[in-house]
Design goal:
about 15% strand; Response regulator; alpha/beta; phosphoprotein; 5-stranded parallel β-sheet; Rossmann fold
């Protein structure tokens, strides 16, 4: 798990990006969190959909990495419950799963995921993707925030 004290993001000054990693395989979730914390993100792991929903209420992640096949609540249901409104946070939902067939890709699209990464993901690629997704989302939000400030 990540230390409680937030670090600096690899490219962005100020508070680090918060990442929630949800996987019923605790080793996979914990390893991903350790990697993300090592490069400056603030990351937390959960091992079930209900635990992720509870943590998201207080942690307010900017990116969620979700496994699809989990007992009880699968990743697609979790994605729909984390972001019932496309304009609401968490801002970026990433399916991080070993599944890569046509049916899985349809499930991922229907649940509103922003991206699908297939396990095993190269650690460097994962860090790069999370950072780029976050910056792309921030760039899309800046014009809307600037317009509100003018009003």
């Amino acid at each position: 798990m990540c230390a409680e004290s937030p670090g600096e993001s690899t490219t962005e000054p100020g508070p680090p990006l918060r990442v929630l990693c949800v996987d019923d395989n605790s080793d996979a979730a914990d390893t991903t969190v350790e990697l993300l914390c090592a490069v400056g993100f603030e990351a937390r792991a959960c091992y079930s959909g209900p635990a992720a929903l509870a943590l998201a209420e207080t942690f307010h992640p900017g990116v969620c990495l979700l496994d699809l096949n989990m007992p009880g609540m699968d990743g697609d249901e979790l994605a729909l419950r984390l972001r019932p409104d496309p304009g609401a946070g968490p801002v970026v939902l990433v399916a991080l799963t070993a599944m890569n067939d046509d049916n899985s890709r349809r499930r991922i699209a229907a649940a509103g995921f922003d991206l699908h990464l297939v396990k095993p993901v190269d650690p460097h690629q994962l860090v790069t993707v999370v950072d780029k997704l976050w910056h792309a989302w921030e760039a899309r939000q800046k014009p809307a925030a600037d317009a509100k400030a003018v009003q």
